[in-house]
Amino acid sequence: MERALRAVETAQALLYDALVGPEILDLAPANCIRIQTGKRAGRTSMKQETINRLMLRLARGGLKVVRLKGGAPSIFGRVGEECAFLHDHGLATEIVPGLTTAIAAAAQFGFPLTHRDAARRLLIATATVSSGDLSDGGWAGAADPETTLALYMGRDQVHAAAARLIQHGRPGATPRSRSRTPAIPTPRLTRPRWSTWRRHYGPPHPPGPLFYWSVSS
Question: I need a surface site. Which of 27, 99, 142, 191 has the fewest CB within 10 A?
Fold first, then answer.
């Protein structure tokens, strides 16, 4: 926490994702360059190649650049791509740990992700590939009844993902809920029925992981 705070408070250029709240941005110095890079499902966002080159240009200009994510940078945050690009161009990087939405939501709303004799594993997975299509692999493991599944980037494929899980043996009555990303000002946890699932989880609602529980919360 202190490392993250210190990084933002001393930033000279801040490239931040759409889910970063204004109270966080206000921690940066008044003369800090602030650039919103997007990265929010269903909306126009800056291309990854553009973000990479922007970080490079700002750093080569002598600025301390902070790339601010809305969660854990090492979990679906493209930290590997960005660090590799900067390293290839001779720049050093530092990764400051963050808190992924699945862990933050569990703490904020008071539910367990694992439970003795019921939920022996936690699987954090993405429902879609870069094209936006449903992922082809991994569904058998995700359907394991002793696994709590936190499914990221599944808003636009929510019914297809549910059908694939049921096809691989996950009971249709499995408890499920959807967390509105804790990073936004009004986080929320909902547990809708299948008949109203798309209305509660699909577009145009904000992103957030879909949970399939192995233990009631």
Answer: 191
- Could you list the active site residues? 17, 39
For the segment 5-18, the average pLDDT, to the nearest whole number, is 95
Tell me the C-alpha distance between 170 and 142, whole Å: 8
Rounding to the nearest 10 degrees, give the CA dihedral for residues 96, 25, 41, 150. 50
Helix (H, G, I), strand (E, B) or coil at 171: coil
β-pair type (176-180, 210-212):
antiparallel
Cβ pair 189, 179 in contact under 8 A: yes
CB 121 within 8 A of CB 114: yes
C-alpha distances in Å from residue 34, one per residue of 13, 48, 133: 6, 17, 32
pLDDT in tens, 19-54: 888 999 999 999 999 999 975 555 567 899 999 999
> Which of 91, 68, 78 has the alpha carbon at shortest distance from 5?
68
